[in-house]
Amino acid sequence: MNRVRRLLPLLGCVLLGCVLLTLYAPGGVLRRNEPPGPLAWSPFDLAGSINDTQNRLRRHPDDAAVWASLGDLYLEQARRTADAAYYAKAQGLSSVPCGCPRATASRTSTP
């Protein structure tokens, strides 16, 4: 009986941890309505990553981190393809009103 009493707090902590993971883990019950975080883009398929980021911005236009990711993708695509049109696209994002410092830095870091 004494052994069971020592294990009860441990079992309670394990049960509480499982419940919290179920509720608050990404895709959990309480986090389904939150907008998704910034995209992790693929270094091998920049065109696909740009399309995915643009689609996410259509669903969540106020997400400054995704705007910053789009600017980064445009700059990387411009570096890889030597196409100056992507620099213009990245520069065009500077008119987007958002207060994210990373987005502002990304939009102004054209070479």
Quickly describe the structure.
With 111 residues, the chain is an all-alpha fold. It has helices at residues 2-24, 46-59, 64-81, 84-92, 101-107.
Structure commentary:
It is a single chain. The chain is built from five helices and no strands. The chain is mainly α and 111 residues long. α2 runs antiparallel to α3. The longest helix has 23 residues. The C terminus is likely disordered.
What's the pLDDT, averaged over the residues? Answer: 74
In N-to-C order, the SSE pattern is HHHHH
Radius of gyration: 22 Å
What about the largest sheet? none
C-alpha geometry: elongated
Low-pLDDT windows of residues: 101-111
What is the number of beta strands?
A: 0
Strand content: under 5%
Structural class: mainly alpha
Annotation field: number of helices: 5
Q: Give the termini distance in whole angstroms.
A: 72 Å
Percent range of helical residues: 55-70%
Topology at a glance:
Blueprint: H1 2-24, H2 46-59, H3 64-81, H4 84-92, H5 101-107
Helix pairs in contact: 2-3, 3-4, 3-5
Short descriptors:
single chain, 111 residues, mainly alpha, 5 helices, elongated, disordered C terminus
